[in-house]
Amino acid sequence: MRPASVVIVGAGVMGASVAYHLAARGWRDVLMVDRSNGPGRGSTGAATGGFRAQYGTAINVRLSLMARDRFLRFEDEIGGDPGYMPAGYLWLATSHSELDALRAGLEVQRAEGLWEAAEVGVEDVARLNPAVHRDDIIGGVYCPSDGFIAPLQVLSGYLAAARRSGVRVEWNTEVTGLTRNGSGRIVAVATSKGTIDTGAVVNAAGAWAASLAQCAGVQLSVTPLRRQVAATVPCTVLPPGMPMTIFAGDGFHFRVRDGRVLLLWPSPGVPGRPFDIGVDREWLAAVTRMAHRRVSVLRDIVVDAASSWAGLYEMSPDKHALLGVAPGCDNLYLVNGSSGHGVMHAPALGQLLAEIMADGATSSLDVRALRPSRFLEGRPNQAPGLL
Ligand SMILES: Cc1cc2nc3c(=O)[nH]c(=O)nc-3n(C[C@H](O)[C@H](O)[C@H](O)COP(=O)(O)OP(=O)(O)OC[C@H]3O[C@@H](n4cnc5c(N)ncnc54)[C@H](O)[C@@H]3O)c2cc1C
User: Fold this and answer.
1) Which of 84, 118, 307, 323 could be 370's S-S partner, Cβ–Cβ 3.0 to 4.6 Å?
2) Across 94-121, average pLDDT
């Protein structure tokens, strides 16, 4: 296969954003490869499309604010509609410890300039989302500029913009090996379609990133975690502009998308089968019961098992992304481990990785908190609690 200055492995939202940002900075001969047969077959196509800046750590708030800026300019800069809809994120507390954790997050957010995030009382909850049962709720937090984005539209925007700038994309191309020379640099990428000589590799392989890194002998702490989504039949019992509404304690949340209500509630993956994305019938029944208890208008609305789905989060040990050069391999670049926030952070992480690759360091944001070596140094970020 034709040589490339850089091979980006994975053409999901992260790889596409990196490709676009590299090309926009003048990189030539950028090649993306993906083993699937078209866009959105990995986690990006499974994402529900939440966007939030309400996080519990400064770096995640900053990534979101940087990304939000880019979503607002997306149409002019990239082309296409990213679907940014500021419908708000409403977090609900049912105990004082939950409320304290939400308040602690609020302090971090305000220190980063997210002034519109605020604590809300039970009467505000009634106004913001009248459908939710308020018996157990003692308060919460709300941010009106959080809301939704459209994952596949963001992906197709970046893919099209990258292609316009000269990036090549090869589908149905699986990376099976990475060859390093005597100095430890990657010089070739083995694929199902042949070998590609290259000057650098970007690992944008999502939940599969650890096995790709392993091809170069690099240990990467990114593991898959199944995330299931229950979709109701089409209905109009809840308004499309309803905020994403989340119970902070157990993570149950619900929203309206494409005329259906989506119900989510974190659950463990399938024991012994970490990449399994089957939807568990018992989980569907349990999340439906929970929705009926908490949102009575949903009691007459059937959950449509055939339209429900699951995908994989790409978890890092501290639930923060890994961004930059892989420890021990100078020309392997990581943009991994977003831990379920990858679509919303892709505009920021793609730009930041392109800065690292082109200039050796970022200029837009201090990303030391995301350095891949932090786990080896024994200095992970404080894993966020509820946020
Ligand atoms: C149910 C669900 C809901 C979610 N909701 C949200 C949300 O509301 N907001 C949000 O921001 N994020 C959300 N996420 C997380 C989001 O989907 C991910 O963080 C994001 O899509 C990661 O993008 P990616 O490009 O790294 O991975 P992917 O989209 O998975 O792309 C990785 C690509 O790498 C390819 N690949 C892997 N290994 C190889 C190989 N060896 N050779 C060639 N190709 C390879 C795969 O085929 C794949 O296409 C959700 C995820 C799930 C599952």
Assistant:
1) 323
2) 97
| pLDDT tens-digit map of 247-299 | 999 999 999 999 999 999 999 999 999 999 999 999 999 999 999 999 999 99
Whether 386 shows a pLDDT value over 90: the answer reads: no
Report the nearest-CA residue for atom 53 of ligand 1.
Answer: 311
For residue 145, give the amino acid letter. Answer: S
- CA-nearest of 209, 202, 149, 158 to 337 is 209
The response to whether residue 31 sits with its C-beta less than 6 Å from ligand 1 reads no
Whether 142 shows a pLDDT value over 80: the answer reads yes
Say if ligand 1 is within 6 A of residue 338 CB.
Answer: yes
The response to whether residue 34 sits with its C-beta less than 6 Å from ligand 1 reads yes
Neighbouring residues of 226: CB distance < 8 A, sequence distance ≥ 6 = 267, 268, 269, 270, 274, 276, 277, 310, 311, 312, 313
Residue 387 confidence (pLDDT) above 90: no
Give the whole-angstrom CA distance, residue 359 versus residue 68. 24
For residue 365, what are the contacts with CB-CB under 8 A and spacing of at least 6? 62, 63, 66, 348, 352
Q: For residues 59 and 367, is the Cβ–Cβ distance under 8 A?
A: yes
Distance 368 CA to ligand 1 centre (A): 23
- The band of 383, judged by pLDDT with boundaries at 50, 70 and 90, is confident
Q: What percent of the chain has pLDDT over 90?
A: 98
- Whole-prediction pTM value? 0.98
The one-letter amino acid at 130:
P
* Cα–ligand 1 centroid distance for 207 (angstroms): 6
3-state secondary structure of 46: helix
Task: Report how far residue 75's alpha carbon sits from residue 50's, in angstroms, rounded to the nearest whole number.
Answer: 19
* Cβ of 36 below 6 Å from ligand 1: yes
Q: How far apart are CA 149 and CA 156, in angstroms?
A: 13
Quick one: tokens of 212? 């790709």
The rounded Å distance from CA 336 to ligand 1 centre is: 10
| Structural tokens at position 47 | 């994402």
| Angle formed at CA 33 by CA 154 and CA 342, multiple of 5 degrees | 35
57-105, pLDDT tens digit by residue? 999 999 999 999 999 999 999 999 999 999 999 999 999 999 999 999 9
Query: In angstroms, what is the span from residue 149 Cα to ligand 1's centroid?
Result: 15
Backbone phi and psi for residue 187, each to the nearest 5 degrees, phi listed first: -120, -15
